[in-house]
Amino acid sequence: MKQIYTDSILLIERLHRRFLDVIKTELDRLKIDDVNNIQTLILYNISAEQLTIGELTNRGYYLGSNVSYNVKKLVENAYLVQERAPHDKRSTRIKLSDKGLDLCKKIDELYQRNVDSISKELDTEAFSHLNKTLTMLEHFWTDYINNIYKVK
Hints:
It is a single chain. Strand 2 (about 80-85) and strand 3 (about 90-95) form a beta hairpin. The protein has about 150 residues and is mainly α. It contains six helices and three strands, in the order H-H-E-H-H-E-E-H-H.
């Protein structure tokens, strides 16, 4: 079981890196060079929402310093619009610009092409089972971390 567990951890890490390569390949195909694969995923995960950088960080997808740097670059390259929050002038909210929305549409088309191709080999049930297993692993790790802090 230990070998299967460690193999799974390594596979998760490799899959993430490989998916980033997929995004990079699509950006290259589209001749988009003013945004990187990580920034593209940030845009895709923001989608139609309007968030603070803190809210984006709290989702758990990104490290705080990386989010701030990437948001700054996305604003500079006109993929994001940054505005002061009306209720708290110290806080800023971010949303996708038209350029950001256009890129997200292109990435969504990539996702659909991927789904169309992979659904010939894996069905909805297989992916649902995979997602359930990965969610259980995430909860296990979260519980582990929370219990370690309780012991201290």
